[in-house]
Amino acid sequence: MMDQMEPAIDELVPAQQVLTREFTKLSRPARALIHPAQTCGDYLETLVDEQLLEDALDFIGHALPLRHAIWWGCCCIAAVTPPETLEGKDRKAFAGTCRWVADPTDRRREYVHRVTRVVTDVTASILLARAAGYPNMKLPEPLAALKRNFKKEGVIAAVNIATLDGDDVDATRRQFLEIGLDVSRGKTVWHPPQN
């Protein structure tokens, strides 16, 4: 029960562990900045100092556990688009995703999967819901060897799309990084659904 209050990223863990564990789309300049003993927190700080904000978003998205990453996506979308202004499938997808984060049951996962199966527009809310709702399936061995986490890539894509809804893309990226750090430190936690 209290595990949801624990930091999701141990800032003292070497950043190289994240890069070894998961495939990331970090740019060459971002990869050139990593040092063997560098912590996740130090690496994120370096990426921000070097203005590699998109790389920093990618890194934090992969460093967070999946449920935390999806919650981070919910918080980012809500920061630039008030949930009450969402309409139609976006509203259903966003609400369903938030409910799944708070109570990650198969029933809630299946709901967001159904809501986003057929859509005409791919939005940040839809991509995020797909990351939460996509069924857990064992990948064939050639794909599993790639170490790709397609759900986390969906979260990162949703967060990147949401940056376009802010007034200034770089300022929004910085805001989203702060939100990600708050999620990782247990400062922004999900609450059980009201219904």
Concise synopsis of the structure shown:
With 195 residues, this protein is mostly helical. It contains eleven helices and no strands.
Please explain how this structure is put together.
Helix content is 61%, strand content 0%. The protein has 195 residues and is mostly helical. It has one domain (2-184). α4 runs parallel beside α11 (169-184), α6 packs antiparallel against α7 and α8 runs antiparallel to α10. The two termini are 19 Å apart. The relative contact order is 0.17. The model is unreliable at 1-5 (pLDDT under 50).
N-to-C terminal Cα separation, in Å?
A: 19 Å
| Total discrete domains | 1
Low-confidence stretches: 1-5
Rounded average pLDDT: 85
Proportion of residues in β-strands = under 5%
Count of individual beta strands: 0
Number of helices: 11
Helical proportion, percent range: 55-70%
What is the 3D shape?
Answer: globular
Topology order in helix (H) and strand (E) letters: HHHHHHHHHHH
Main β-sheet: number of strands, strand sense, barrel status? none
InterPro entries: DUF6931
What labels describe this entry?
single chain, 195 residues, mainly alpha, 11 helices, disordered N terminus
Write the layout of secondary structure elements.
Layout: H1 15-21, H2 28-32, H3 40-49, H4 53-63, H5 66-80, H6 88-102, H7 106-117, H8 124-133, H9 141-144, H10 150-163, H11 169-184
